[in-house]
Amino acid sequence: MKITNILPLAILPFFVACLREGSSKEPETNNSHVTLKDYTIIIAPDLSNRINMELYPKPIHDTVLLRDLIGHSSDLLTLNTRRSGQSDIYKVDFINRGILNGSSFDPKKMTIDFSRFDNNQMDRVKYIRQGLKSDEQQFSNEVKRVYDYSLENQTGADVWNYFNETVKASLVDASPKRIQSGNNLRVDKKNNNVVLLLTDGYLESANKGKGYRLDPALIAKIRQDFKASRKSNLAAFIKADSAYAINKTDFNLKDVNIFIGELVDRSLDKYGVAREQPTDFQIIKVVWEKWLKDSGCPNVKVIQAVSTKQEFYKEFEQFLKAI
After folding, report:
1. Contact call for residues 253 and 290 (beta carbons, < 8 A)
2. Are 88 and 115 in contact (CB under 8 A)?
3. Does residue 244 contact residue 291 with C-beta atoms inside 8 Å?
4. Which residue from 282, 276, 275, 190 is spatially nearest to 234, judged by alpha carbons?
5. How far apart are CA 177 and CA 145, in angstroms?
6. What pLDDT score does 205 carry?
7. Are strands 256-263 and 177-182 parallel, antiparallel or unpaired?
8. DSSP states of 17-70 as a string?
């Protein structure tokens, strides 16, 4: 794992002033404690047959959403009143890393890493002004190449094992690092790991054993059982029966915040009208949230496929601000 370098103390007072100015949570005490936060955003697309727009049409293609998201890099850098010294990392990760075998994809082209400037603020500023835009374009182009390749070379996506094992290699140390202590002020710096998972929510390519799948058959059973129970609280009903649960991961996700987007509800018709109640999405959302929180994840957000790229970015930005 990578450990984020300590921020140069020379620019610390400016950081603290910015944070105090924009945060109502800062306590007015004689012994204040401030935590400066950065983000490692790990984009993990489910490249199974869900990316086939003919099979599973959705309003906006993943590549459009990701191009828009990475195009907001300079905006992401200023979240929570940050002004300098950011150590953000934005990168694409693969649920099925076999896609890299025998292909010409370069993970470095799908990575924007500001932590490399931790000891040189002037180089960071120069890069943002002169180099960032071209790297954003390179990032988007390489992502499109991956999607084009995956559409012609279909593989499954074992999302359960991704969170249980694969994601470990992409995480950074999230432990707060003390960078100042004295004069009644303690300052820590930490990096938040954020996985942006693009998936349809149906777990069909995972292990065959019980507790690793959430396919249409299980969703239909949950719906049928819920109706027969005549209960009114879907979430409480699902959480009360372990037969509906996905097994928690062996790996503790305590240092991973997870945003799940672009769930395409197969219980809706082409006009977006529900053919079944409760809908697939309502059921999937409860099961996923329970699974990931049982696995230790501190923050989980699940959204359906959006109709505009602006809506997607806004949802993701709000998630980042809240963690």
Report:
1. no
2. yes
3. no
4. 282
5. 38
6. 64
7. unpaired
8. HHHHHH-TTS--SSSEEEEEEEEEEEEEE--SGGG-TTTS--SS-HHHHHHHHH
Interval 10-59: pLDDT, tens: 445 444 444 444 443 444 445 799 889 999 999 999 999 899 998 888 99
Task: Please list, residue by residue across 239-275, b when 16 or more beta carbons sit within 10 angstroms of its beta carbon and e when fewer do.
Answer: beeeebbbbbbebebebbbbbbbbbbbbbbeeeeeee
pLDDT (tens digit per residue) in 254-313 = 999 999 999 999 999 888 899 999 999 999 999 999 999 999 999 999 999 999 999 999
Q: Which two tokens stand for residue 249?
A: 């991961």
- The structure tokens listed for 278 are 């409760």
Residue 266 Rama label (left phi>0; alpha psi -120 to 50; beta): alpha
Tokens standing for residue 103 = 């292909």
pTM of the model: 0.88
Spell out where the chain has E strands: 32-45, 89-92, 111-113, 177-182, 185-198, 256-263, 300-304
d(CA 226, CA 74): 46
Residue positions counted in the chain: 323
User: Is 192:37 a contact under the CB 8 Å cutoff?
Assistant: yes
For residue 153, which of 225, 116, 105 has the smallest C-alpha distance? Answer: 105
